[in-house]
From TrEMBL, chains A, B:
InterPro entries: Chorismate_lyase_/UTRA_dom_sf, Rv2949c-like. SUPFAM superfamilies: Chorismate lyase-like. Pfam families: Rv2949c-like. This is Chorismate pyruvate-lyase family protein. Keywords: Pyruvate.
């Protein structure tokens, strides 16, 4: 696996910052799907909320320099968001890491698992982590990084 | 500048995790210097404390796979540390990022500046950032990353 993917597998920092460092260009988000759902038992457990609680479900692709570097599928309990964060998350194409920096939230990222698998983007590094704020899961994210996007990169 | 250095310049995550991802081996810290000092006017301003307040000054080198990847010079106001964090910082060779994860601290990293310059390690990327916890500077760190350590890396 190339060293950038090894870094993305383990980092507890913003993935968007890493992608922007690679290309030298701003990352852009394309929202594929975004809706509010009631938490299933599985999601309720993952987020430590009650079944049926409102959750924002968001699927976005992260592009930079015209390359799709990642797809991120996230679940966010609405009751843990303040209004401005919620507005940015639900109606604007802003990466989560940037929203967190914008509002100067203090967080930690807890990586739950990672693996290599084929999905709709081809062969990918896939990892799941939670962003924790005030001791609670603010967001649970599953990111897929297609090998093809990173294999095209070369050292200068 | 090679892509790993570009990532290190911008990341708001743990530098140790990135170095460990590169080598596949645990990072080790070698403490070069560690002492408690009274804050000078400049340090007091940087940390938002009073002149003369006690500050831990620490210089460490970060090694992995036998390579020195970074030197980190840090200033930490002692009054903002709880006892266990203080003990790990002052008497154990543990990277700051690992101490933060160990105690599950929620933080944000605010990057203040970066530049390329020659210092005692040769030509380096140098950056300064603060780790913020509960709205206060917990640590201010200046990291030097010698180009020579990273230029030796190759894609697999």
């Amino acid at each position: 696996m190339n060293p950038i993917l090894r870094i993305l597998e383990r980092t507890d920092g913003s993935v968007t910052s890493i992608i922007e460092a690679l290309t030298g260009e701003r990352a852009k988000i394309k929202t594929i799907e975004q809706k509010v759902i009631g938490a299933s038992p599985e999601i309720a457990e993952k987020l430590n909320i009650n079944e049926g609680d409102e959750v924002n479900f968001r699927v976005v692709d992260i592009f930079s320099a015209g390359i799709r570097f990642a797809r991120a599928v996230s679940y966010t309990p609405l009751k843990r968001l303040d209004e401005s964060f919620k507005r940015d998350l639900m109606s604007a194409d802003i990466p989560v890491g940037k929203i967190i920096r914008k509002y100067k939230l203090e967080v930690r990222r807890e990586i739950n698992w990672s693996c290599i698998k084929e999905n709709e983007l081809g062969k990918c590094l896939v990892r799941n982590y939670s962003i924790i704020h005030r001791g609670e899961v603010l967001i649970n994210i599953t990111e897929s990084f297609p090998f093809s996007a990173f294999d095209g990169l070369r050292w200068e």
